[in-house]
Amino acid sequence: MIKNSIDKLMAKISSYTKLNNKKSLEYLVLITVLGIIILLTANGLWGREKKEIPKVLDAPVQGINQETDQPNYGLEQRVAKILSEIQGVGRVSVLITYASGPEVVPARDSKYTHSDTNEKDSGGGERSVLQKDQDDKLILVEEQSGAKKPLILKQLAPRVMGAVVVADGANDITVKTSIVRAVESAAGVPGHRVQVFKRQ
User: For the segment 47-66, what is each residue's pLDDT rounded down to a tens digit?
Assistant: First the structure.
């Protein structure tokens, strides 16, 4: 299809050269200039450097919990291990739900300018001009592979929403209280968001 279009264009150009040599030269120059303008415009639109948006990097995910389809950041296993060591708990299963995934804080190069100008005119009037400018750019680091990635300042742990614990010894109120306290401390979740049940 493109080849056909080029062939038609070449046929028109050659027909113009037969009619009037000076006129055909003008058309050829005009077509060339238009082609260059189109190429420069297309390059300007599509060839711009793309800003890299910081991606949320995955926390050390241990896998996906098959029953809840939630990411598992290893906290469930650690809490279950420590709970099983508490006297009277016995076998234990732990499910932790997260309100959100991990949050990544990228480094930014921020420049702020602030100018306050007071002007007085000859008529006694005063005018105050306040101008604030902010330029904020993401700091990118080039890896050995040549890929550029944002420089990460810190990675915040995912926020725990709640926990469910199923344990053999959960029918004893002392054991149940110990489980709730341990989960509060280990997962950083308030006690009213921890539910403890006796295993079947």
Answer: 544 444 433 333 344 444 44
